[in-house]
Amino acid sequence: MSTGTYRTPASQLWRRLWRYVGPHKGKLVAVVLLNAAAAFADVFSFTLLIPFLNALFKSDQLLPASGTIGQVLQATIGFLLDEQDKMGSLMRVMLIVIGAVTLKNTLIWSSGQVGVKLQEFVVRDLRDALYAHLLRLPLPWFTRNKVGQVISRVLSDTANAKTVVTELVTRSLWSAAQVVATLVAMFTLSWELSLAALVIAPVTVGAIQPVLRKLRKGYRRLGNEQGEITSLVQEVVSGVRLVKSYRAESREERRFTERNGAFAKGFVKVGRLALLSGPVTETLGTFTAVAILWFGARLVLVEGTMDGAELLVFLIQVMRLLQPLKQLSQAPAAAQQSLASAERIFEVLDADAETARDRGTRATAEFNSTLAFEGVSFAYDSDAYALRDVTFTARKGEVVALVGASGAGKSTLVDLLPRFIDPTGGTIRLDGVDLRDIKLDALRSLTGIVSQDTVLFNDTVRANVAFGRPDATQAQLDAAAQAANALGFIEALPEGWDTNLGERGTRLSGGQRQRLAIARALLSDPPLLILDEATSALDVESERLVQEAIDRLLLGRTVFVIAHRLATIQHANRILVLDGGQLVEQGTHAELLASGGAYARLHALQFDRSVQLD
User: Fold this and answer.
1) When you count CB atoms within 10 A of the terminal residue's CB, does the N or C end of the chain come out lower?
2) Which residues are bridge partners to 430 per DSSP?
3) C-alpha to C-alpha distance for 403 and 569, rounded to whole angstroms
4) Cα–Cα separations (whole angstroms), residue 446 to 205, 455, 550
5) pLDDT attached to residue 391
């Protein structure tokens, strides 16, 4: 995955994130309306201070005689006021203030409830989309990217992306509603003072733009570093037995401490930048408030166009405006971490899925006669060939063994069969049809894989065996397990078929795990089987049981066996000897021994240690 600086424009990231808000726009509209109502209730409650202050200053009138604000107050509470009973009037006004504040907080609470649902549902949808796309990415993508980085994107980056929704919905919409409602009240009190108060806003926005650009770059770098830490933890936890056996705890602790320390320093550096926007905004806002106070005093004392109560309420509104303005100015800074995470998410979502390169048109496939490699080559990079010009034909029902040193190209060759990868040269034909003309789902329905590194999920025995056929009946499960020599130990488990196996099936022995994998392959009943020799790490009894199960698995199928021990493939119909990505020999065991070539030398290396090889 890319670890460089960001490239996607922020506006594009906003638009793409907004698509995930669209399905929940009803909740968004509800939040906007609730926030707007709460903001106007809040402003109205403070406007009610005018009659209180007029009474306190012993003004002749409790309400302004003219102006929009006076008309609004006269229409809403004028009937409750009695110039001859000022204390009684003020008591009624205070009760209205309490009611308005109670209403405001009820609306804010309701908005928060809807906002939480909105942000969590948006993140749920984003995480679902990311995970679904991950499952459909081609195999080479996973070999290029670390597990920790992938996990970080699915969990951490989607959680960070939530901040955008949080800022927009639970805080910024409320702040924006406060600003709009307060500005309306301010302009009704004095348009001159209101214009003066707004002069500083563009200056504030412009002042923090360089900070925002640096923040996004920094947050993207931190996201990549967090992925590296996740990778390190995943590797060490998975390999903790090896770490302990080599007494490497201290060394691994140092590796983690160094990465974690660098991450912390990076976060401090980014945090220092993030904290700048608040002080800058507040300082500029304070200058604004002082200027307004001076200008307002002139309107009251010199020009007489405003009374003291209105000026005080105006100043209160201005000071209350600073907090939502401060939050709104900080929202872009806080959003930079989310945008950096969103960019990392969309980097994955933009990677081509297997379906994007699947040009197959045949929705069904059968294997009736031959599987032919015709000059097949494959290169992971332009000049790094894993296979070069491989040509052979396997017939239905044959056992084809692949032999060669590590890195000879055996795994690459079998990865071509289910089209985990596609040839960069040549063609593979199934009954004369190019594999690339067959849809992936149809092709993979023909193949099954039993690998040396058995994959079992943290689920029940039933779910693991029925992974390829979730609709299998209990009779079919029992038959497959019986053929795999697994039924006995399955029924002896505490909960039988419903026993949870734990992560990677760690509650079972190596032989038991292999027999479950074979039962899974038997149940799906594929005509084409890929077998990475699975008995090399087992004890004698487990090896016998697994080998018996494998012998049953091979019956009636075309099998490609990656052979690590030559003794297990002597009865193969065809043995392919690979060296450096090239097919150097092919034939039966007897034919290859008689030729005295590469296979004979490998055989001698395993069975006759006294033989000196060239």
Assistant:
1) C
2) 371, 433
3) 9
4) 61, 20, 18
5) 95
**Helix residue spans in 350-439 (DSSP H):** 354-357, 410-415
42-51, 92-101, 232-241, 593-602: the lowest-pLDDT one: 232-241
The domains of the chain, with CATH numbers, are 10-353 (1.20.1560.10)
pLDDT tens track for 224-233: 777 777 777 7
Query: CA–CA separation, 433 vs 474, rounded Å?
Result: 37
Q: How far apart are CA 170 and CA 162, in angstroms?
A: 11
Contact of 468 with 523, CB cutoff 8 Å = yes
- How far is it, in rounded angstroms, from Cα 333 to Cα 45? 32
Report d(CA 21, CA 348) in Å as an integer. Answer: 20
Contact 563, 589 (CB under 8 A): no
What does the alpha-carbon distance between residue 318 and residue 327 come to, in Å, rounded to a whole number? 15
- For residue 247, CA distances in Å to 234, 240, 600, 609 come to 18, 10, 41, 33
Is residue 561 within 8 Å of residue 400, measured between CB atoms?
yes
What is the C-alpha end-to-end distance of the chain, expressed in Å? 43
Give me the amino acid identity at 243: V
Give the helix ranges, DSSP H, for 434-539: 440-444, 461-465, 474-483, 487-492, 510-524
Bridge-based pairing state of the strands 384-395 and 425-430:
unpaired
